[in-house]
Amino acid sequence: MLKKVSSVYLKIKDAAVFLGVSPETLRFWEKNKKLSCARDPRNNYRLYKISVLQKFREIRKRKYNKSKKS
User: Fold this and answer.
1) Can you give the pLDDT at residue 5?
2) Which segments of the chain are extended strands (E)?
3) Which of 15, 23, 33, 35 counts the most CB atoms within 10 A of its CB?
4) Closest CA to 47 of 35, 56, 31, 62
5) Which residue has the higher pLDDT, 11 or 4?
6) pLDDT in tens, 5-58
């Protein structure tokens, strides 16, 4: 079950579950500028905007389906 930090953001573990990848993959994508995140000023935790994750997931799904057809 996903635990929202707010109605808008997810912590890295929950964002990883949402996308079906590991937290390490999210860090890799962030490092390589494929996905961005905000930082909680209190503890510097990564916070991923749910709407951005939804769009990112949809793009990945389309790319996967497109490459599968080829």
Assistant:
1) 62
2) 9-11, 38-39, 46-49
3) 15
4) 35
5) 11
6) 678 999 999 999 999 999 999 999 999 999 999 999 999 999 999 999 999 999
pTM: 0.81
Q: Which residues contact 12 (CB under 8 A, 6 or more apart)?
A: 23, 26, 27, 37, 45, 46, 48
Question: What residues does 39 pair with on adjacent strands?
Answer: 46
For β-strands 38-39 and 9-11, DSSP reports them as unpaired
Cα-flanking dihedrals φ and ψ of residue 38, to 5°? -95, 170
CA dist 64 and 17 (Å) reads: 18
Domains of the chain as residue ranges with CATH: 9-69 (1.10.1660.10)
